[in-house]
Amino acid sequence: MKKILTKKKINSIQKMWGDGIVEIGNTYVNNGDYQSVAEDFVKKFYGYQEGIVLFKPTLASVEQFRDTFEKALSYFISGNPKYTEDQGFAIRPWVKVKFRNAGIIIIKNHAVAMGNYYFTDKTGYEVKVEYTFGYFLNQNGELKINLHHSSLPYTSA
């Protein structure tokens, strides 16, 4: 049976991605093996094993583009001396992540979604971030990210 992309599947993977970010932070706070959780997260959601991933994290200005598994992992949990700007985005920790899609384009086994996602920390502070994610179905029918661009909204000076 051939897998078909739908908006419902995109919404589902976005929810799982957000829950995964929260899980990394929870594991970190509870002194668990957050590195393994983060490694599994990157492997589950990103297509580094299948090919090129274009990843521009929100809070990166020196190593702006994360084209390898190692670079992506460092962004999410820090600790890699090669990438000293990384503060560990996923270990803040966040308690909630919600997506608000402006739109989703689906063409065969590829999709692009754009909108805002909101990260809430344990104090209740919410950060609004703009995103564009590209998705593809791999040979196993798994939905993976091959494009992730995040940025903070423009503010006038």
Automatic annotation (TrEMBL):
InterPro entries: MICAH-like. This is Phosphoribosyl-AMP cyclohydrolase.
